[in-house]
């Protein structure tokens, strides 16, 4: 049983809890895989409708517990982190599955991923994998923007940019207005800034509790790796994960459809 393509049209406003196919990674979650299966596919759930109803009740209870914890945004308990993990991973899986179905009728092949669609202004190839990743990223971020507020209202940001203050040694948040102003002047002063996809914070964007980056490897069996900074970059040779860890501490997460929520380096 799969979500219909009609659901893709409603994805940004109504689709909830659908996952794509593939081998899930190991990740901490408050709602176990059997519960998730029963909620999504009650007709195929062991125990039938009764078990499915019990699974839904468990989800309500866990969500209510998480909602009570959200009142204290200054802390991120392991229970609440697990709920955040689940919400973000579900959105990533939905975006991956629905776009794959819409565009390919299933998962794209390695050859389809490698196809060069065009070249950018510098003459570098733009592959289907690159474009597909951007489209999935946009869909997943819209889903996260919709699904995360009940748990972390005022306690998360998307695409929040930070810049290292050389005088204090601290990473400071830049407002949208600051970023736009720097872009208008050529963007030179944005070199060396970092921009995690999802930042969990205390309500103050300078007080970071956790960060997530969404990864959509193509084909999906490829491991989701942190991007390494190249020649000419201030952090050349380093990768996103180690840079996030130096900036914010903790254990930054990569989130990928078939791999789950991964922390640390591969």
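Q: What amino acid sequence fits the structure above?
A:
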């Amino acid at each position: 049983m799969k979500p219909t393509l009609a659901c893709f049209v409603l994805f940004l406003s109504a689709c909830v809890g659908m996952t794509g196919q593939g081998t899930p990674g190991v990740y901490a979650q408050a709602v176990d895989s059997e519960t998730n299966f029963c909620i999504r596919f009650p007709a195929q759930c062991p125990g039938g409708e009764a078990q499915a109803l019990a699974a839904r009740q468990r989800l309500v209870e866990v969500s209510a517990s998480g909602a009570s914890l959200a009142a204290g945004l200054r802390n991120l308990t392991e229970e609440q982190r697990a709920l955040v993990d689940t919400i973000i991973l579900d959105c990533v899986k939905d975006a991956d599955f629905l776009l794959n179905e819409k565009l390919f009728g299933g998962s794209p092949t390695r050859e389809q991923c490698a196809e060069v669609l065009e070249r950018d202004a510098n003459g570098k190839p733009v592959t289907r994998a690159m474009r597909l990743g951007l489209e999935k990223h946009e869909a997943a971020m819209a889903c996260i923007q919709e699904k995360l507020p009940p748990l972390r209202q005022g306690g998360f940001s998307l695409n929040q940019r930070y810049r290292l203050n050389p005088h204090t040694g601290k990473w400071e948040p830049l407002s949208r207005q600051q970023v736009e102003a720097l872009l208008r002047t050529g963007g030179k002063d944005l070199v060396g800034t970092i921009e995690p996809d999802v930042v969990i914070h205390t309500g103050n964007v300078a007080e970071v509790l956790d960060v997530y980056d969404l990864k959509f490897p193509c084909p999906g069996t490829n491991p989701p790796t942190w991007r390494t900074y190249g020649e000419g970059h201030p952090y050349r040779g380093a990768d996103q994960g180690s840079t996030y860890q130096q900036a914010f501490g903790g254990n930054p997460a990569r989130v990928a459809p078939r791999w789950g929520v991964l922390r640390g380096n591969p």
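Q: And what stands out in the fold?
A: Confidence is low (pLDDT under 50) at residues 1-35.
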